[in-house]
Amino acid sequence: MRRRGVRGWAAKRRRRWSAVDQRGPVVQGALLRRKLVELRRRRDLTQGEVAGRLEWHPSKLIRIEGGRTAVSRVDLDALMRLYGVTDSADMEKLHLLNQEARAKGWWSDFKNEVSNAYLTYIGFEAGASVIKQFQPLAIPGLLQTPEYAESLCRTVGDSSDLGHLIRLRMVRQENLRRRSSPPDETFVLDEAAIRRHVGIRHDRSIMPAQLRHVIETVECNDKISLRIVPFAAGSHAGMYRGAFTLLSFDNGLGDILHRENGDIQETLTGEDSRIPAFRNDFESLLKEALDTGESLALIAQVAESMA
Predict the structure, then answer these.
(1) How many Å apart are CA 262 and CA 243, to the nearest integer?
(2) Host domain of residue 201
(3) Which among 112, 245, 266, 269 would be 20 to 30 A from 83, CA to CA?
(4) 272 and 199 in one domain?
(5) Which string of b and e fits 202-225 if b means at least 16 CB within 10 Å?
(6) Alpha-carbon span 262 to 270, nearest angstrom
(7) How large is the C-alpha radius of gyration of the chain?
């Protein structure tokens, strides 16, 4: 795939998505579900009791609150009546959340190529206010060039099936940074991620160009920071955890944890008891890492050695 083809595709999407939603349907849906659970608990009702009073199948509310099925306007009205929501402004807010939760996000264009679970994570990412990511072996997807992404994907997939994966990464980057209030992005990388000469068998310029792109991106955007955990730091928490991402939100929604290990991916929501440990581990990795200036200097040194 040529660079021009990827960027031309992204340019077409830029015109189509001229107004980037600040939170998106996945986050709006999560906010709606959180509010409905809160209202139910305030009335001291169990899921079974709600289903019984509304003459629903017992699993219906479980699916709604778990995000496995959308809630219709009729069902939302029934829930609000049962929960005692009578203020017109509160009712309007819940209906607006539901309406926005049922909208299509830009990532729905990839629904036939990418798993629903991963697209849900991307939906959360699209509405995050803070993104914290640790990568032990590779440059983060949100910082990759098309050429690096293609070379990386080529090692694990059919080369004829790479186009949509690379386009998805490029559009994720573009849409995040075109928001009127872009997220704060903090990346921590093991030194191994910048030392491996990805693409050397095809084009040895791919990796040094990728490293220079990282430097330029960080230096030109005060919302993005990057730190390197040097080999000299010895063992660290990331060696056990592997790659992970923490998403935070400015609307009260709990943190999201996304873990990747090869083909295995897992997204955990704010109430999961494992999230605080990963939050602590990320702070531990920051303490082991070089500061931003030292990190960029090391990356520049490695890029020069590969040129």
Answers:
(1) 10
(2) 109-306
(3) 269
(4) yes
(5) eeeebbbbbbbbbbebbeeeeebb
(6) 24
(7) 22
